[in-house]
Design a protein that fits this description.
Elements: H1 11-28, H2 30-33, E1 37-39, H3 47-52, E2 56-58, H4 60-69, H5 73-82, H6 91-101, E3 117-122, H7 126-138, E4 143-148, H8 159-181, H9 187-209, H10 224-227, H11 229-232, H12 239-257, E5 263-264, E6 267-268, E7 274-279, H13 287-295, E8 299-304, H14 324-334, H15 341-355, E9 359-365, H16 369-372, H17 375-386, E10 390-395, H18 405-425
Parallel strand pairs: 1-2, 1-3, 3-4, 7-8, 7-9, 9-10
Antiparallel strand pairs: 5-6
The structure holds iron/sulfur cluster.
Residues 61, 90, 92, 125, 127-128, 337, 368-371, 397 line the site of iron/sulfur cluster.
């Protein structure tokens, strides 16, 4: 299968682990420190604003995915179903609610504080609205702020939509934060955060674009989900976030220079056989098994839509200290789930072209309509336009009942056979960039 077996944790991974552990520690100590807490969601998040108020963000989906990776989600989901949540509700929601019902002990086994403010940045997924209605019932004393983000129905950022979002920020969201924080927003602090965000965003894009090299030094999906950790969660805009991406970019540059493939849990890939693009989130409950199904075949992901779930930097957008609220608005408008289907297809095609991919995999998530709706149409469209093999598999985010190893393996085996046959018919030069 082409792997070297010496697995070493890279500095960037160690750094990220420390950042997370410090963050959860800070959350567990809010009673002593008096810090305020904002619960919010990843797509189109307003981390810089929260940080500018010196508050700590909590992302319920991140807690759910962490619970999934730590094999705790099945139990939490059952707890939520026992109190009436139906089977077809998004498993992130049930995992999160189940965790709260069991005492709100977070993935690091530390108590998560209750929110002082619930900030809903509504970016295309209706479930967010329902999820927050439930959180409001669980936390009746929390302040509620809602930012409505118009869907990009006609595939462009409409200046009227930017103005509409800026008005909501100015007239409603920021005053509510000022009330909870007990202080005015400092434009200087927000601008400093946004400058640092732009630096980290440039570095992240360097990392993602490195997948154009052959062999690719990164796995843009299974590695990619770690790479987006700091930028899409609690750290964007912080000096630690910039430090993380500087370190990561250094490591990737080293791998490019030495023509090394990505690192997997079983060692580095030494022979890149297939370059793939993937649409849809990964499965978290069996993350390593799922990844192994690909690296055992020498398959490396060179592009992934899921790693754009929090926001998109591929077309040049960066947060900007020159137009703080305008850039926050544009960021929210641009996240993947707020884009229409032609835009999503265009992004997948861009990955296929830029990275010279051999095939596309669609991982259809049972409980996430925001990603799954339209995937069959996307599949047909890309097959027709690009003539490349597309593999379609189904799993779930954190509900272990919907991960069927043999079904997925059977489908992937056929997909890899298709890829192999196509290679034999159309041998392509594997040029090292
Ligand atoms: S349905 Fe999908 S996008 Fe919506 S909350 Fe659940 S996982 Fe997130």
């Amino acid at each position: 299968m082409g792997l070297t077996m010496d697995v070493q944790k890279e500095n960037s991974m160690i750094k990220q682990k420390q950042m997370l552990s410090d963050h959860f520690m800070a959350l567990s100590q809010v009673k002593e420190t008096g810090k305020k807490v904002a619960y919010t969601f990843v797509p189109g998040n307003l981390t810089e604003l929260i940080t500018a108020f010196d508050m700590l963000p909590v992302y319920p989906e991140i807690n759910s995915l962490q619970s999934g990776m730590r094999k705790k989600s099945g139990d939490f989901i059952r707890e939520a179903e026992d109190v009436g949540y139906p089977e077809d509700v998004c498993s992130y929601v049930k995992c999160d609610i189940g965790m709260m019902l069991q005492g709100n002990i977070g993935p690091t086994d530390q108590l998560l504080p209750s929110p002082d403010i619930l900030l809903l940045s509504y970016t295309g997924c209706f479930v967010f609205m329902k999820w927050f209605e439930n959180l409001r019932r669980l936390y009746p004393h929390a302040e509620i702020a809602m930012l409505h983000i118009p869907y990009q129905a006609d595939g462009r950022v409409d200046p009227a939509a930017v103005k509409y979002i800026k008005d909501q920020l100015t007239k409603d969201v920021i005053p509510k934060f000022e009330k909870v924080a007990g202080k005015r927003l400092s434009d200087t602090v927000l601008a400093e955060c946004l400058s640092r965000s732009a630096v980290a965003e440039d570095l992240l894009m360097n990392v993602f674009e490195s997948a154009r090299h052959k062999p690719s030094p990164i796995d843009a999906y299974f590695g990619g989900v770690y790479y987006i950790g700091p930028i899409f969660t609690s750290f964007r805009g912080s000096p630690a976030c910039v430090g993380y991406y500087e370190e990561l970019w250094k490591e990737v540059q080293y791998r490019i220079a030495h023509k090394l493939g990505p690192i997997t849990p079983d060692g580095a890939i030494t022979e890149e056989k297939y370059r793939l693009v993937v649409e849809g989130p990964p499965n978290w409950t069996n993350f390593r098994d799922f990844w192994k199904l690909f690296y055992d075949h020498g398959a490396v992901f060179v592009g992934s839509t899921y790693t754009r779930v929090g926001g998109l930097y591929d077309y040049g957008f960066r947060h900007s200290p020159d137009d703080p609220l305008g850039s926050l608005a544009e960021y929210c408008l641009g996240c993947y789930t707020n884009r229409n289907l032609p835009q999503r297809i265009e992004l997948i095609e861009k990955f296929i072209t830029d990275c010279d991919a051999d095939g596309l995999v669609i991982n259809s998530i049972k409980s996430c309509n925001s990603f799954s709706a339209g995937q069959l149409a996307m599949m047909r469209d890309i097959e027709e336009r690009r003539g490349i093999p597309v593999g379609f598999i189904e799993t779930d985010l954190v509900d272990p009942r919907y991960y069927s190893y043999s079904n997925i393996k059977n489908r992937l085996d056929s997909f890899f056979q298709m890829l192999e046959q196509r290679k034999e018919l159309q041998p392509r030069a594997r040029v090292i960039a």
